[in-house]
């Protein structure tokens, strides 16, 4: 984790241009991670395609195009190289065949029974199941059984194109090659039965599959074990009459197969005692093995396929765990917010509530400013309208747009301008602290305006001598745009409702830079504002907690700030916030093992901040990812209902937060769209912050465009419109 920030000097043109050129590269890694995760989910959904029930999906067709010797022949059909041969199994030989596997529960039990009774069989595996359980396919081959193709995801090939048939065969073969290193020449079409059931739809498919080099294997004895008719009935149906040979159809997948396993354990010894042999197909026909080894590129292609499928299974399992975690965190956070914010509101709004003796003495307001010509006049005039006595110090941090001259030209009493070479926001604030006349110091941003009562409301909690800092109520002033409306929801619900909760828990993580107040006597022992992190407001708040000071929230101390109006500006701001928060958590990590106030914050505050500000936002998009997964792969209705349930919980919390802040509910109309789009942007930002942190990268301050249109409600500050500018101090 990078521990020191790079100050943004006045001559930044070359570096800014370089940073803009590198921006796509910075975004590339998180985008690739997202694409990879989505690809893994899609792959998992693909290989988990549902296998349809064992019945034909469309009615049978006529049979006049099927050769009579096929209709009257045996269950093995060889249409390779233009041949039309029908083969039967010799008397007293049985070929057990198992369809639709391998299954992780029942296939091993079937294999165990076969091994116990020294019997071989043929397993017609689907590509989906073989891809998911390759070890079972390998075990089949290693124990002398034969495997055959049963398509990749079990469609009725009679109604598919040749292109789809080729795809089903090649994907099925790819899975078998990756699992066992072989190719097979055996094929059984889904929904097949006896040879006399061949019709004008299925026969052309059999001919085409023969032209691709495969022998089609149907059956002439059906145990109908999928109906679960009972062990005795399965044995009766599987037993051929008069000692004839047969190909017996059974299943090792597709549901509960305990009757199949029990029947097999009785069936094998009973028929062996009657002189039957249980061979695989080529053994029964005295033919060359159906398996041929695969080497070279085809083998590695198959292994790569199996690797990717297995990786998708493990990643998806991890994402499911993450979804469970985020579900617990989201619900827990919402419950805590609703409960504790209500407690906070009732406590501070009860009649006669006071923090202590009224605070009436003057306070110093520090306004760090870098290229704030568009906003600074509105900011200063809003302070002059304050109903609490203030001294205003504007610290011009090396501005090049005349910010300091604008303030000086206003000629206002109790307003001082301090100029310094560009050194960053923490240095500017520390310079202001050194020149402040009063112990209580209010800090705000140069693009923010206060209401007349803001300073008074902000400093009243200092009537309690235990309070070292106060967080105000930052609000979005430019909320008419869609992005502004989304941020308005976030500020009211995600920030201010959180602050009420953290106030009650006594672990407020951040005094917002837009509106906060501090005791100078609390700041000086901890070294003032530190430039160790990009989130100096979070850093100093955590340091105050560790020093034993109480940090509270003043809901009526409202400040109106201009939120970013474009995705790029929003990205820059939130990237810095996220990364800075991680830096602050890392910096104060030792609090977890310390004693006293520091230990309390470390064991209560840091876990809460880490869970709710870092882990939960990182995992929250899993809700939307699994919404997409569920819509594509099912169960669609349950997935949509679950997602709407989460959205309903968020809507309830948002409505409650708006009610507490006395905001109009109309802005909540855009909440569903915010959850779908805005949250994904915040997720990518946080992911990029994680990557920057883990790779030890460094991040500079970002400059954001401002228009200077924000004013406090009631028209206390003259509205001033101007064109957008690239000028922006390197702090937000």
Automatic annotation (TrEMBL):
One of its GO terms (biological process) is carbohydrate metabolic process. One of its GO terms (molecular function) is glycosyltransferase activity. It comes from the Bacteria. CDD domains: CE4_GT2-like (cd10962), CESA_like (cd06423). The chain crosses the membrane at residues 27-47, 319-341, 608-634, 640-660. Gene3D superfamilies: Glycoside hydrolase/deacetylase, Spore Coat Polysaccharide Biosynthesis Protein SpsA, Chain A. Keywords: Glycosyltransferase, Membrane, Transferase, Transmembrane, Transmembrane helix. Pfam families: Glyco_tranf_2_3, Polysacc_deac_1. Residues 92-279 form the NodB homology domain. Belongs to the glycosyltransferase 2 family. This is Glycosyltransferase. It comes from Streptomyces griseicoloratus.
């Amino acid at each position: 984790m990078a521990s020191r920030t790079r100050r943004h000097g006045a001559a930044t043109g070359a570096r800014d241009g370089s940073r803009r050129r590198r921006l796509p590269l910075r975004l590339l890694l998180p985008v690739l991670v997202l694409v990879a995760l989505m690809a893994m989910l899609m792959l998992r959904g693909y290989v988990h395609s549902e296998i349809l029930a064992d019945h034909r999906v469309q009615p049978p067709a006529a049979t006049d195009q099927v050769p009579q010797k096929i209709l009257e022949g045996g269950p093995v059909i060889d249409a390779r190289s233009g041949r039309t041969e029908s083969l039967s199994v010799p008397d007293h030989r049985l070929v057990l065949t198992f369809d639709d596997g391998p299954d992780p529960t029942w296939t091993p039990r079937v294999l165990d029974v076969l091994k116990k009774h020294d019997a071989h069989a043929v397993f017609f595996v689907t590509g989906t199941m073989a891809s998911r359980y390759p070890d079972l396919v390998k075990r089949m081959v290693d124990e002398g059984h034969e495997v055959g193709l049963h398509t990749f995801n079990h469609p009725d090939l009679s109604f598919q194109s040749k292109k789809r048939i080729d795809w089903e065969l090649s994907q099925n073969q790819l899975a078998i090659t990756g699992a066992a290193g072989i190719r097979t020449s055996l094929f059984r079409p889904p929904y097949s039965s006896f040879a006399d059931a061949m019709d004008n739809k299925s026969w052309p498919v059999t001919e085409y599959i023969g032209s691709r080099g495969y022998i089609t294997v149907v059956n002439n004895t059906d145990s109908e074990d999928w109906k679960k008719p009972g062990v005795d009935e399965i044995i009766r149906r599987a037993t051929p009459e008069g000692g004839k040979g047969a190909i017996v159809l059974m299943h090792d997948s597709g549901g509960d197969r305990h009757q199949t396993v029990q029947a097999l354990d009785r069936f094998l010894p009973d028929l062996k005692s009657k002189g039957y042999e249980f061979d695989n197909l080529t053994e029964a026909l005295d033919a060359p093995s159906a398996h041929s080894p695969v080497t070279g590129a085809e083998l590695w292609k198959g292994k790569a396929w199996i690797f990717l499928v297995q990786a998708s299974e493990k990643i998806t399992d991890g994402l499911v765990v993450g979804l469970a975690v985020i579900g617990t965190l989201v619900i827990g956070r919402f419950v805590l917010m609703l409960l504790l914010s209500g407690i906070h509101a009732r406590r501070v709004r009860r009649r006669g509530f006071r923090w202590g003796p009224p605070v009436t003495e003057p306070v110093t307001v520090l306004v760090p400013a870098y290229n704030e010509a568009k906003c600074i006049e509105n900011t200063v005039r809003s302070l002059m309208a304050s109903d609490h006595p203030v001294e205003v110090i504007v610290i011009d941090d090396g501005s090049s747009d005349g910010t300091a001259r604008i303030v000086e030209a206003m000629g206002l009493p109790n307003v001082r301008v301090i100029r310094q070479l560009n050194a960053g926001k923490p240095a500017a604030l520390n310079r202001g602290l050194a020149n402040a006349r009063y112990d209580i110091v209010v800090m705000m941003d140069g693009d923010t305006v206060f209401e007349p009562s803001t300073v008074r409301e902000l400093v009243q909690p200092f009537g309690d001598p235990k309070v070292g800092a106060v967080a105000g109520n930052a609000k979005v002033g430019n909320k008419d745009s869609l992005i502004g409306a989304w941020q308005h929801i976030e500020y009211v619900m995600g920030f201010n409702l959180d602050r009420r909760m953290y106030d009650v828990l006594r672990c407020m993580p951040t005094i917002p830079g837009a509106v906060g107040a501090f005791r100078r006597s609390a700041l000086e022992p901890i070294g003032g504002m530190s430039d160790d992190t990009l989130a100096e407001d979070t850093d100093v708040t955590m340091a105050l907690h560790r020093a034993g000071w109480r940090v509270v929230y003043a809901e009526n101390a409202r400040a109106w700030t201009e939120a970013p109006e474009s995705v790029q500006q929003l990205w820059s701001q939130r990237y810095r916030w996220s990364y800075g928060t991680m830096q602050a958590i890392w910096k104060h990590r030792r609090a977890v093992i310390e004693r006293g106030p520091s230990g309390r914050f470390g064991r209560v505050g840091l876990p809460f901040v880490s869970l709710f500000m870092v882990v939960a936002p990182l995992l929250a998009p899993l809700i939307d990812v699994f919404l997409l997964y569920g819509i594509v792969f099912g169960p669609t209705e349950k997935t949509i209902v679950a997602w709407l349930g989460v959205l309903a919980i968020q809507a309830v919390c948002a409505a409650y937060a708006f009610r507490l802040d006395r905001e109009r509910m109309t802005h909540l109309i855009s909440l569903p769209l915010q959850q779908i789009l805005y949250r994904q942007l915040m997720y990518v930002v946080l992911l990029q912050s994680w990557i920057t942190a883990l790779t030890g990268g460094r991040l500079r301050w970002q400059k954001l465009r401002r228009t200077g249109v924000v004013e406090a409600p009631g028209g206390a500050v003259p509205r001033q419109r101007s064109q957008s500018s690239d000028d922006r101090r390197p702090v937000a």
